[in-house]
Each structure stands twice: as structure tokens, then as C-alpha cells.
Amino acid sequence: MRIPMIAGNWKMNTTVAEAVALIKEMRPGLDRIDNVDKVVCPPFVSLAALKELLAGSSVKLGAQNLYFEEKGAYTGEISPLMLAELCQMVIIGHSERRQYFNETVELVDKKVQAALKAGLKPILCIGETPRENEAGKTEEVLTRQLSLTAKQAYHSGLVLAYEPIWAIGTGKAATGGQADQTIGFIRRHIAEQHGREIAQSVRILYGGSVTADNIAEFIKQPEIDGALVGGASLKASQFLGIVKQTSEIKRVK
Q1: What does the pLDDT average to over 23-34?
Q2: What is the CATH number of the domain that holds 90?
Q3: 163 catalytic, yes or no?
Q4: Rounded mean pLDDT of 145-149?
Q5: Which of 52, 90, 111, 209 is deepest in the core (most CB within 10 A)?
Q6: Which of 134, 193, 141 is nearest to 162 (CA)?
Q7: Catalytic position from the list 96, 163, 217, 223
Q8: pLDDT at residue 170 greater than cutoff 70
């Protein structure tokens, strides 16, 4: 049984004071839900403050990125050893990192390996652009993005997040069926590469403009294990609504 996960990616939003206020508002409701893994990923500057606020909570803390070296002359970067003292998880290879900061499959894999070495659980993001989707290259792109992901990474708790970039902020929307079909392909690909047992155990989240209004359509699908939530995770009522619906739907199953 794969435990569902809802992860909130706050991106470059919230000051430390705003992050603290948001967690204080959300934590009581989130702690009452016991059958969903809850993760919040604030900006780096808020990790230390939120670590204190979430002590003893069921809510996990995650970072949004890291560098693959442990230390050195890399001005402005954050090492996995720094993060390991503050959080449990880290988002790697987000579509915005690939698009705006030119992160390659090779660089993303180095980050995954560095995270695992430091004891962090990666949320590895994969997904195709609008142009790739229109050209029918979805499976080709996803296969390439997973080509360097080692079997040990799955054994060590790696979580995948499928982000159809063509359905994020474009006015287009993926249906639950479309997302489930693509995530089913990802799972079959992993089975071919690493065996059915790993494919059936790895959690694969959906990340395409998820809100409290549409989460049910996605979470009802058999292949989808949760969601990587963007803008809706910045609103306590929205994020709680997403987690509550996930809990109710998955508990019934």
C-alpha cells in the first residue's frame, strides 16, 4: 500500500514572518490527518524557523533545491549537508529549474545522488513542455529524464512528481484520466528497468495546477499517489482542503 503524499511547493513566496504565520494556521488541521504524508517546502530562509514550529508535528519539511557538492567555493548555493540539519525532503529537477536555470538530466541526477547520500528524500520532478507534448514526445522525454535514476534511489525512498508543463499556467488542463495514463506509463517504464516490485512501491505525485477544486479528479485515479501543489499551498484553506480530500478518498480505497 503506497501512502499518499501531498507536498506544497511555496516557490519564491513568503517572507519568514509570512511562512511562520501560514504554518501556524495550517498545522493543527494537518496534524489531525493521519493517513497522508504532508510536506511543506518553503524558501531556504524559512527552513530554520519552520523546523522549530514543526517539532513534534506529523508535517515534514522540505527544501526546493540543493547543490550536489557538500561544501566549497560555490557562492549562493546550498549544500545537502546544510539541508540535512533542517529538513527531511528536497525537490529536485523542478520544471522551473530545468527551464530557467538550464538544469540537465546529468545535473539533476548528481543532485539526487547528493541528496540521498546526505539522508534526504528527493522529490524528483519530471515532465514535458507544451512543444514536446504537441509533438507526441511525452514518453520519450520522460524516459530520458529517468534514464540515470538508479535502482538504489527508489529503494532509498525517492518520490516522483509528474509535472505536465503544458498544463501549468497555460490555460490548458490535464484531465485525471490523462494524468493517470501518463503516470501509468512511468510506472511501467520503472518496472521494465528495475522490476515490478519497485515500480509498485514508488510514489508518483501529480503536479499540474492542483487545487482543492480539482484534486478529487486526480486523487481518485489508481496510479496517482498524491500531488505536488504550487499556488494552492500558499493558502491554508486550499492546502487543508487538498489534504482532507486525499485522506477521505484514499481511506475509502
Answers
A1: 97
A2: 3.20.20.70
A3: yes
A4: 95
A5: 90
A6: 141
A7: 163
A8: no
